[in-house]
Predict the 3D structure of the following.
Amino acid sequence: MIDLGISKLALIGVVALVVIGPEKLPRVARTVGALLGKAQRYVAEVKAEVNRTIELEELKRMKESVEKAAREVETQVSSTAAEFEREWSEVTAGLDGASASTGGPDPATQDALSSLGSPVYPQYRRPKKNFRLKRQAVPQWYKARAGVRTRALSGAARVARYRPKSVQR
């Protein structure tokens, strides 16, 4: 890396002042500064892209390891389920033969099971059909006497309506 100290920067500035001249030096300095800024932004973008690529590769590796573990768990569960089904069929095979020979459960148990078979739900009742119409069927004279608001007023209309009248002198 280039080692730039204060003395070297001062020497570069003096040479630039002599070569370029004092009239064009500020414009050249702005141009050089803009170009350096663009170069720094470009380098930062390249670094960010490289970091994103590295993170993406890490995520892909992590995804593959998780998928592998999921496949292992799935095969283990399926083998365990198959084993359970096999054992269950062996155990229930002996029970099916015993119940067939006895003729099923006794009549008292049969009645208890049939009564528990379907739950009883309350019957649906339709709501009153015209409740909104009946609510609005109050006569206008009654609403006016009882003080029920029938129309909405805007804020300005309410101020104009209820503003105290000024006393003229």
